[in-house]
Amino acid sequence: MASTQELSDFLKQVERRAFKQTVYAVRDDHAAMDIVQDSMLKLTEKYSDRPVTEYPMLFQRILQNTMKDYWRRQKIRGIWTTLLSSLGVGHDDDEEHDPLENMVADNAEDEPEVQYERQQTIGIIEAAIKNLPARQREAFIMRYWEDMDVAETAAAMGCSEGSVKTHCSRAVHALAASLEKYGLSKQVLEKAGVER
């Protein structure tokens, strides 16, 4: 079992290299710092009782999984952003907003037919989300709408991180299938490269 000092020394030793490695992968300094810090925190919380010789392999696995999780979240957010922006939703400021709530208000000057079509689309999207099983809906909204990470979502839902990933995966596939019936997501999914 490693001492607190050994753990601290290990984290200091790998921080700079891990940051560079992550910046190359995600191409965003702020996201890279968050990923590295999350990985360090996970190592500390879950594996501090392990021998220091196991830390390099454990940390790399945690770091790689955290990066994959970041890309997965970005991909899903990109799909929804593309879908909603293709419907005319957009904000120039950085205020947080619910895209579905603001969809009609942002485009009040549009032609009545366009407004009607947009309202129909909002209804389809809301129905698709409402029709998800409760746990899938909860995980999907927390992860991709609220931008919570897997650990935060797992803590909020009172389940394991693996369960959160399973719920999210099933929710994404169910929503894609549901929206494809209306022709809403097929092109967006193809652009984003989502495999079904």
How are the SSEs ordered, and which strands pair?
Elements: H1 4-26, H2 29-47, H3 55-86, H4 99-106, H5 112-130, H6 134-145, H7 150-157, H8 161-180, H9 186-192
The fraction of residues in strands falls at under 5%
State the total count of DSSP E strands.
0
The CATH architecture term of the domain at 1-67 is Orthogonal Bundle
What share of the residues lie within helices?
A: over 70%
- What average pLDDT do the residues reach? 78
CATH topology of the domain at 1-67: Rna Polymerase Sigma Factor, Chain: A
Largest beta-sheet details: none
List the total number of helices: 9
Q: Which spans have pLDDT < 50 for at least 5 consecutive residues?
A: 89-95, 186-196
The value of Rg in angstroms is: 20 Å
Structural class by secondary-structure content: mainly alpha
- Give the helices and strands as they follow along the chain: HHHHHHHHH
What is the straight-line distance between the termini? 43 Å
